[in-house]
Amino acid sequence: MSTARILIVEDEANIRRFVRIALQDEGFQVFEADSVKRALIHAASRQPDLVIVDLGLPDSDGKQLISELRGWLAVPILVLSARDREEEKVAALDAGADDYLTKPFGVPELLARIRAQLRRHGHTGTVVATSKVAFGEIAVDLATHQVWRSGQPVHLTPIEYRLLCAMIRGQNRVLTHRQLLLEVWGLDYVDRAHYLRVHMAHLRQKLEVDPAQPQYFITELQVGYRLVGL
Question: What is one Gene Ontology biological process annotated in the Swiss-Prot or TrEMBL record (predicted)?
Fold first, then answer.
């Protein structure tokens, strides 16, 4: 019997219940979430060993959840979705999923894939970084989407927050203009570098002590940007 902790992210109650019962019968400890918001909270507080994600969630696409989790959670992510087109599978795997199983599915195959992923990851279930990260006077809770500067809450627009998370996931590496545009805006915007300049300026205005001489959001000329001090 396994003691691994598994988080199920599925908005359809019947499917969630079906998967939960199947996993509990195998000895897994199971937690449930019906939205991206609740999934992020559970992932931060429960520290699961594996996450099962449906792509069709009510508050955001499951691929966005996978991308956010990949910024700070080093556990296998298994997609369980009715979307069977190849491009959906590729997009989910590119976002950070480890495996993809289409609905309808059989319980034996689901359990086999879970066991394979847990073996592959050594069933350590470790978090590569806490959901709360900091640099200088800035603190960010990746699970609740809250940002503080010198202890005071800072309001970021959705684009600014996605850009900040992309920089955090970069972990002090230089991220090219194309990488950031692709991750934050999508494939249709990879040639619109002015979008990136404008929103980076806004981010510096809100988080840097002196936006004209940034300490954290560093420009790498003609290449991209790098977040330092994380």
Answer: positive regulation of DNA-templated transcription
